[in-house]
Amino acid sequence: MANYLAQFQTIKNSCDRIVAAVEDVSDLWPTVKELFEQHQPLKRAVLTNKTRNPVLVENLPVEFILTTDARLRSRFPHEQYLYWFREPYATIVLVTCEDLDEFKNILKPRLKLIVQNDEKEWFIVFVSKAHPSNDQATKNAKKVYAKLEVDFSSKKRERCCKLDIHGPDANFWEDLELKITECIRNTLDRRVQFYEDEIRKLTEQRFMPIWNFCNFFILKESLAFIFEIAHLHEDALREYDELELCYLETVNMPGKQREFGGFDSEDDQAALLKPGSKPLTQMVHDDSFREFDFRQYLFACQSRLLFKLNRPFEVSSRGYSFVISFAKALTFHESVLPFCLREVWVLTACLALLDATASHHNDGIVAPDIEKEFYRLQGDLYSLSRLKFMRLGYLIGYGTDIEKSPLNSACLSMLPWPKPAVWPSLPPDASSEVLEKEKTLLQATSRTKHFGIQRKPLPLEPSVLLRVANRRRASLSTGNISEIFDGRPGFTEGSGLEASPRTPSSLKVQAAPMSRTNSSPGNFESPLDRPMRLAEIFVAAEHALRLTISDHDLLKTLSSVQDFEHKYLNLTKGAAENYHRSWWKRHGVVLDGEIAAVCFKHGKYDLAANSYEKVCALYAGERWQDLLAEVLPNLAECQKILNDQAGYMSSCVRLLSLDKSLFSSKERQAFQSEVVNIAHSEMKNPVPLDVSSLITFSGNTGPPLQLSDGDPGNLSVTVWSGFPDDITLDSLILDAWLDLQDGFVHGKSDGRPTSTFFPLVVSPGSRAAVVFSISIEKTMPSGKDLQLPESILNIKYEIHGDRAAGAHNPVDAADHSVADAERRDLVFKSAIVLQRPVLDPCLTVGFLPLPSDGLRVGKLITMQWRVERLKELKGSESVEKQHDEVLYEVNANSENWMIAGRKRGYVSLSEEQGSRVVISILCVPLVAGYVRPPQLGLPNVEEANVSSNPPGPHLVCVLPPLLSSSYCVPVK
């Protein structure tokens, strides 16, 4: 059957609809042909799908062909079965007769001969030419038609219908459509059953040596094509899916070498949507097809059906998955394929899918979640094409024009280099191009960031291109490091070990004499046999790409930096716009930052600032401070150039509010000096500046305050400044009040401090005390009557502008009108736990002093508590049944402390008054600074029975670790 592939494809391409044969017995077709074609397609045809379920097909086209036509001439039996999809699905017999004797003697025997084939689905159309005014002719026609029905129709099936040319014909066309549909349905069922039986036989033989995939393909695609022309697209799609699975099973069958393909002209242009781009005979290899061509052909057939089903979303979904999987196959065969065919193919495949799916997609037709997912897939396709396009641009020397952003670095540094068997050689007449590339490389300088921020450029390559390319050159040694880097010790590229300036000198000395010679056909002739320089690698790759790429538009985009940037910008915008319309809006915002970088480069600072503001808002909202530190200086620079003083100062403040480890002290001082200089300058239009993220309040954490009736307690609230240097405040205006927890009451009913100097003004360099009068409530509520589990200290203050970041989350102190929206009172709230005095304790827990040499990070220390029994516990005062056993539990922040040993257990404590026990816990401090120490609790003893004497400290000072001598280098 493989010999019939060319004829099979030709016939299939020429047949696009169901055929109905017309047996013109009485030469009526020229008269009725136009009427028949006017009533096409069939409006509502009910057919049977593969699972034998009825399916309503609307607008089913049918082509009427005379039985005398050359296309329907008889063939050999095996040819008829092979091309059965083109055989007629119905036979319409056209007759007319007005004489009953003529019908009996001449017409009836002829009709019997025509319809005697049992495999043919047929019915008879009797055409009456009698004029309504001619009664005799009308009567004769009715008699003949009545006799025709008696002879050829039965109770099971009506096979006759009457067309009156000169009379009303509404019922006739409905009857004709029903009869054609019935014939098509019966023929379709019979042919589907035949093909399924034949396919089943071949499937059972697929592991036998005689099995031929071409034969299986012809039968399978014939069945799929039958479904397709019958508009049963779901069934046709299922056949192509099964055909793909079977092909992949045979391709991956071990023990048989198969040619992959990919060497023909224009193979670099993906044919995912063009099933007829190559003839089937050109794809054949032995008893199967080349994988490169055939998998694309199958996907093209599948996408054609999906578009007919109005499912562009599924084309995008399947297309993206296919591109990823097919790229893996291209990677596996990369060493024998043309240079960079994988990158070029993926790029053209994504662009083709984008154009086709966008043209077939209509907004609002599908469900909102499907629509958003569609745009997400479009964004993925744009992102993938953008990535491959950047890789091609880098290979030909445009890497200096690609923004070294976190996104581009993350994508390109994980994308492997092309791996041809031999890296392309430099053409002999390319010296001028090499010189031009070298000039470009020497003139390329990395842009210095605003504020003098020093950052190591992010890599755009997975490893050093210079080393990778020279290793893949034929008949060349790898050379030593100085040769590879063109004798320039200061030149670094990428993130590999070879490019690192921190490579130990001993390694460099050892690497110098090492060399290795690779055997090859010797297609590079050089008397020096030296490695290629970076400029030569770029030129060689560019010439090789010109041989690989057949798309002139793609070649043009790589012909100059301007064309490259234009295409890069279009791909980035396409990805961003589609992500904005999908679920992945954050991806779109990140890509807006890449667009902003191009706008900034070309002096479009207003557009760049708008995009950078979106990116900074996203990074700040997600608390991605490392990324924000990369982008925020760019926004500040745009604002300074645009003379946006308010925005510029706000960006400087936001830079200061970022984590201190992200910038050096010198850089942070530069941020502050910019704010101070502008603030002290004579501004034409003064603007409010929100510095609440740098000057705010914080409360000190610690154990609960233990207050007895009439005893004072100290509650400290710190005014915190995030400026790197000293800064002077003219005044700080605030108000305060205290919301008490249950069990305590105010000395004053309004909850205000006893001082009458509120609002309180705190001048620079001064301290102010706030005194609250608090007493213990006589009746302590319990159970459901509890209102506040902890006390709240409220401090009201004022800031200008919108507060977005800081040490706490402010809330509006009261409702404000729209007119007062620009100036709002904000409230800082700090939770305080007050502890009622233990008047009659049964147990006391005392914290023993810490070692005199202090605490250091990583140094093992012993925390000790003394537990003493003051009196015996009563039954109602403890849940312990064994009074000589006390349950203890040590609570510590796992980020600050590592506990060695049991955190929870029992200790023996005698029931006698005055008995003592010391609980010791080994622990290691993990962080330096003032941290809260571990706390000891007695879970099974009520808090009203336990006092702290002496109490544990609120905070302890942990010193940094000592320097290790193993990291010290002696000074000579």
TrEMBL record:
Source organism of this protein record: Brassica campestris (Field mustard)
Entry keywords, A to Z: Golgi apparatus, Transport
Domain TRAPPC10/Trs130 C-terminal: 854-942
One of the record's GO cellular component terms: TRAPPII protein complex
Protein name (Swiss-Prot/TrEMBL): Trafficking protein particle complex subunit 11 domain-containing protein
GO biological process terms, semicolon-separated: Golgi vesicle transport
Domain named TRAPPC10/Trs130 N-terminal: residues: 18-315
Any one Pfam family match given in the protein's UniProt record, by short name: TRAPPC10_1st
Compartment annotation: Golgi apparatus
Main localisation: Golgi
Leader sequence residues: none
Superkingdom of origin organism: Eukaryota
